User: Fold this.
Amino acid sequence: MRNQFACLALALSLCVTCLPGMALGAEKAPVAVVEQSTFEFAPQFEGTDVVHDFVIKNKGNADLTILDVKAG
Assistant:
């Protein structure tokens, strides 16, 4: 009886963790997540190259395509 309960509990937990986004009628869509959307550079000498990487993650269930990026 305990083994059956353990198997049932395991199956239920797998369903709960694997099914988000797979609900009936759920559409596939990308979800862009930017953890750090702004960054302020320290003062630099004129002509100095400055670089900062913004990490964009796709938390959705479809491909994310970035077509254009603008500073602003």
